[in-house]
Amino acid sequence: MREVILYILIVGAGTGGELCISRAMKAVGQVKDFRPAALAAVIRSALRVSWMWIGLTMMATAFFSLLAVLSIDNVSLVVPVTALSYAAGAFGGKFFLGEQVTRRRWTGVLFVCIGVALVIMGRR
Asked: What is the pLDDT of residues 56-84, one digit of tens each?
């Protein structure tokens, strides 16, 4: 049960963090100037957006959950199972960020989920 909770944290918090950071960066605007001073200004702007801090916190939670689950399970299981974040990302992009997700992307998500199911079924 502890592994399941850690996997949920990895996928949920990791993807949630990416979605929050994406929302923060959309609020900041597109990076067009890559000179150090301009990048520093973008970073300062991003750090003023609360979504950035929520996202960073969630991604840190996912990272430490990943460390914990790697101490329990084999990497040959952990990495494929965490691929469920692709599915979570597609759903989050559609419903949280309002993105258009094409039928082809949904088909790809389905294939990822089938692959994860095969890995889990062959677990032991």
From this structure: 999 999 999 999 999 999 999 999 999 99
Distances, alpha carbon 51 to alpha carbons 27, 46, 102, in Å:
9, 9, 26
Provide the whole-model pTM. Answer: 0.88
Query: Quick check: 83 and 119 in contact, CB under 8 A?
Result: no
Q: How far apart are CA 108 and CA 29, in angstroms?
A: 29
pLDDT value for 123: 75
Sign of CA dihedral 30, 35, 39, 42: negative
Domain ranges in the chain are 2-121
Q: Give Cα 10 to chain centroid, integer Å.
A: 8
